[in-house]
Amino acid sequence: MASQSESTLILSIRNRLKAISYSGSGQRPDGGQNYGFRPLKGKPEECALIAEVQDNIALKNALVSLNHSDSIFFTVACEKSCNQHSSGCGYWMKGYVEVAFSYKVMVQNAQCYFQLFYDFNLNWFWKQKQEAIVQCHFELEPTNFWRHQVVGFAMTVWIQTEVMPSEDAARNAWSWALNTFVDFMKMQTLPSGHKFTPMY
Hints:
Elements: E1 8-13, E2 18-20, E3 23-27, E4 33-36, H1 44-47, H2 57-66, E5 73-84, E6 91-101, H3 104-107, H4 110-124, E7 134-145, E8 150-161, H5 167-186
Parallel strand pairs: 1-7, 2-7
Antiparallel strand pairs: 3-4, 5-6, 6-8, 7-8
């Protein structure tokens, strides 16, 4: 079992503005595919059709949970890759899921995202059974949700494993970390005493 000091949780802010919605642009320089933004909120049956989840049940379940009608979030994008180490010995996996609050007031408030990271770090991650050593990088990015006339933030949560002895071990470690994040997000609720305008 991994010790608390071995995994790493990071929060950063990216200094650029991007727009959502966006169309696909085909193959990227890194070999991945950009399929464009696809709204999945409240559409669990469409989550299974996303190309990136076809061979990863944890990522598919993440999209279903984060886009559930009861969730206060929606997903923007996702990706993953399992890679053989350059030495030829072992495998490591890296991927992300990008999320945003589904309500205008919250998506505009960076402090809401800071609080998520703080609570995940202090009150959740380290209290779970540590089944793997991973790095979780929460990357906040200014975002123009132009269809809703809102400028706010989206958050990409990158997860990377250490080098593992087999491809299955790397995939299992990555899935554990993603499931740990999604379980935390499923517990989040709207603050009481306020009226919120949904975007999706």
